[in-house]
Amino acid sequence: MRIGELAARTGTSRRLLRYYEEQGLIVATRAANGYREYDDRFVDRVKQIRGLLDAGLPTRIIKQILPCLDKPRTIYFPDATPEMLATLERERDRMTERIEFLTRNRDAINEYLDVVRANRQPDVELEPAV
Fold first, then answer.
1. Span of the secretion signal (predicted)?
2. Residue 15 counted as domain residue
3. Are 69 and 89 in the same domain?
4. Of the chain's two ends, which shows fewer C-beta atoms within 10 Å, N or C?
């Protein structure tokens, strides 16, 4: 697929997709006319990249994590420093806290909806004026 279709399918701008390519997060082949061509698997990859960026991870760490997202998994980190591992652990813990917060909010909204629906008066139909 071309860059415009990948942008539409992922909700990501073409500019960001080119940036992801510059950072080595995705790879495009070139058609005979010079246009970028992307494999369908990059739809999920771009969504995963966006999620990791939204979680606060920098692209240099995302690039190292990406092999963990593929199947079969090939994980090889010759430069996994203690600092990088500590950063990943902090980010993982921050994500866990956010998930727990979102879960509590979702549960509170569900409880509110249940109570409102249980106590709602049935709609009363008014007779048309004559």
1. none
2. yes
3. no
4. C
Domain match, 71 and 10 both? yes
- CA–CA dist 39, 70 (Å, integer): 14
Name the domain boundary from 41, 56, 76: 76
pLDDT, tens digit, 9 for 90 and up, residues 113-125: 999 999 987 765 5
> Which stretches within 1-130 are classed as H helix?
3-10, 14-22, 42-54, 59-69, 82-119
Model confidence pTM above 0.85: no
CA distances from 13 to 4, 25, 77, 102, 115 (A): 8, 15, 30, 27, 42
User: Token pair for residue 111?
Assistant: 């409880």
User: How many domains does the structure of the chain reveal?
Assistant: 2
